[in-house]
Design a protein that fits this description.
Elements lengths: L1 E5 L3 H13 L4 E5 L12 H5 L15 H4 L2 E4 L4 E5 L4 E4 L4 E3 L2 E4 L3 E3 L13 E2 L4 H10 L5 E5 L3 H10 L5 E6 L11 H12 L4 E4 L3 E4 L3 E4 L4 E3 L2 E4 L3 E3 L2 H6 L21 E3 L6 E3 L4 E3 L4 H15 L12 E6 L2 E7 L4 E6 L5 E7 L2 E8 L5 H9 L9 H6 L8 H7 L9
Parallel strand pairs: 1-2, 1-7, 2-3, 7-18, 9-16, 10-11, 10-16, 11-12
Antiparallel strand pairs: 4-5, 5-6, 8-17, 13-14, 14-15, 19-20, 21-22, 22-25, 23-24, 24-25
C-alpha cells in the first residue's frame, strides 16, 4: 500500500501515526512546499521574540520520519490531483502515484484588496516560519508597525514585536478585539491589558488607502508606519480538491472517517476541512492544532483499513497575550453565567438544553478541563452540582457513581 500525504503539519503527522497504528510496512510519502522538519506553527511568535529555537519548535523529534519509514519531498508543491489515474502532479510536471491520498493543505492568509498596498515595501503575513523570518529580517528597534487585524494572528504578532520595542498600532473593522473567541466584556478586559503594554488600537474602521509609509483609514485617521503586518484572516486551501471534483463548501467536506465527499481513496484533515461542531450541530472550519492532529489520526487509520470516526469536534482555544491567558470552548448561545473580579479574571459559562455549551476563562484558567469534559460528553447539568461547578469546578460536584463510572473509574474512591 502506498500512502501519499500533501502537507507536513499537525494533520499530516496525525495521519502518519494513524497509518502506522495499523500498517507497519506500507510506503508513506510526505510532500510539502516548505523546507522544514514538521514544526508547531503557533510557536512562530515565540521564535520571533527569541523564546524558542527552530529545534524547540519541532512538532516531533528529529528522527520521526526515519522511525516511521516516511519518504519526504520538501520544497515541492503539488499542482493537481488526478483521481482517475490515482496520481498527484508536482510542479516540475512529474506524477506520483498513490493508493490512498491525504490532503492536509491547511490554510493561507487572506489579504483583501486594499488601495495602494503594492506601494508598501515592507509588508508581511504571519502564518509560517518563513513569514516570521522575513519579519525578523525587516524589523528594527523601535520600528513603527501597523498591524491590520485584531484577531489571534495579529495579536500574537504584536506580542512578539514588543521584544523589539516596536511602536504598534492595530486596526480592525470589528468593534472589538478577538471577536471570534471573546464576548464584548472579555474583549474589553484583554484590550485594556494589551494597551497597558503600549499597543494602540483603532477599531471599527479599515484602511482606505496606503502610501509608501502611511495609511489613510476610512474614519479619516492617518497612521504612519515602517512596516505592515497583514492579519485580516485566513482561507482554507481547498483548490486541489475542488479541481479534482471533491465537494467543497467553505472547507473540504468529509465524512466522519475523513474521506472526501465525491472522491475515492482521498481523505482530508486539518484547517482545510469542515467538522461537525457538537455544540451547534453545524458544519464549520475548526482551525485548531489538536483538531487537525486527531482528524489526521482518524484518517490514517481508515486509510490503512481500520474503520474509525472523528467525533466530538468543537471550537476550543488555549492562548495568552502579554501574559494574560485565555481558554475558550464551545458556543455562546444560551443562558450565560458570568463572574469577574473587576481586574483581569473573567468567567463565562453558557448553558442550553440541560448541557454546558461553552465557556470563556480569562486570567484564572485552572480546571478548564472539567468544563471541556462536560461539553464534549454532553453531561446533563441536572446530574451534577452545577451551582458548585460555576464557582469551584471540582470532581466533588459529580456523584460518586458518576465519578466511578465515567471519570476513569476512580478519581473517585473517596468523597
Amino acid at each position: 500500500m502506498k500512502y501519499v500525504i500533501i502537507g507536513n503539519s499537525a494533520a499530516a503527522i496525525g495521519t502518519i501515526q494513524g497509518i502506522r497504528l495499523v500498517d507497519k510496512t506500507g510506503q508513506i510519502v510526505v510532500i510539502s512546499d516548505e523546507k522544514y522538519h514538521t514544526y508547531s506553527r503557533p510557536l512562530i511568535s515565540y521564535w520571533l521574540k527569541e523564546q524558542v529555537t527552530e529545534e524547540n519548535m519541532r512538532y516531533r523529534d528529529e528522527g520521526f520520519y526515519e522511525k516511521n519509514d516516511v519518504d519526504t519531498l520538501f520544497e515541492t508543491r503539488v499542482t493537481k490531483i488526478n483521481p482517475d489515474k490515482k496520481t498527484v502532479t508536482i510542479e516540475n510536471g512529474n506524477e506520483i502515484s498513490y493508493d490512498k491520498l491525504m490532503v492536509a493543505t491547511g490554510s493561507k492568509p487572506f489579504v483583501p484588496p486594499m488601495e495602494g498596498l503594492d506601494r508598501v515595501a515592507k509588508k508581511f503575513t504571519f502564518m509560517k516560519l518563513d513569514d516570521a523570518k522575513a519579519v525578523r529580517e525587516a524589523v528594527t528597534e523601535g520600528a513603527k508597525v501597523l498591524i491590520v487585524g485584531a484577531g489571534l494572528i495579529g495579536l500574537k504578532a504584536a506580542e512578539a514585536l514588543e521584544h523589539y520595542g516596536a511602536d504598534m498600532t492595530v486596526i480592525d473593522l470589528a468593534d472589538r478585539i478577538l471577536p471570534s473567541i471573546l464576548d464584548s466584556e472579555a474583549s474589553a478586559i484583554m484590550q485594556k491589558h494589551i494597551e497597558s503594554k503600549g499597543v494602540k488600537f483603532i477599531l471599527g474602521t479599515s484602511v482606505k488607502e496606503f502610501s509608501e509609509s502611511s495609511a489613510v483609514l476610512q474614519n479619516g485617521d492617518t497612521v504612519q508606519f515602517d512596516m505592515v503586518i497583514l492579519a485580516v484572516g485566513v482561507r482554507p486551501n481547498t483548490e486541489l480538491i475542488a479541481e479534482a471534483g471533491g465537494t467543497v463548501n467553505r472547507g473540504i467536506v468529509t465524512s466522519q472517517t475523513q474521506a472526501v465527499q465525491g472522491l475515492r481513496d482521498v481523505y482530508a484533515a486539518g484547517d482545510c476541512t469542515e467538522s461537525l461542531d457538537i455544540t451547534t450541530g453545524q458544519q464549520k472550519i475548526l482551525a485548531l492544532l489538536p483538531n487537525a492532529f486527531l482528524q489526521g489520526e482518524v484518517a490514517g487509520q481508515n486509510m490503512a483499513g481500520k474503520e474509525t470516526y472523528y467525533l466530538n469536534a468543537m471550537p476550543m482555544n488555549a492562548i495568552g497575550f502579554f501574559g494574560l491567558h485565555i481558554i475558550t470552548a464551545g458556543s455562546y448561545e444560551g443562558e450565560a453565567y458570568t463572574e469577574t473580579d473587576g481586574a483581569e479574571n473573567y468567567k463565562k459559562l453558557v448553558t442550553a438544553d440541560n448541557e454546558l455549551k461553552g465557556f470563556i476563562l480569562m486570567g484564572d484558567v485552572k480546571r478548564a478541563g472539567i468544563y471541556t469534559y462536560m461539553i464534549k460528553w454532553h453531561m446533563p447539568i441536572d446530574e451534577c452540582d452545577f451551582e458548585l461547578l460555576k464557582t469551584k469546578p471540582q470532581l466533588m460536584a459529580f456523584s460518586r457513581e458518576y465519578r466511578n463510572e465515567k471519570l476513569a473509574g476512580g478519581y473517585g474512591n473517596g468523597d
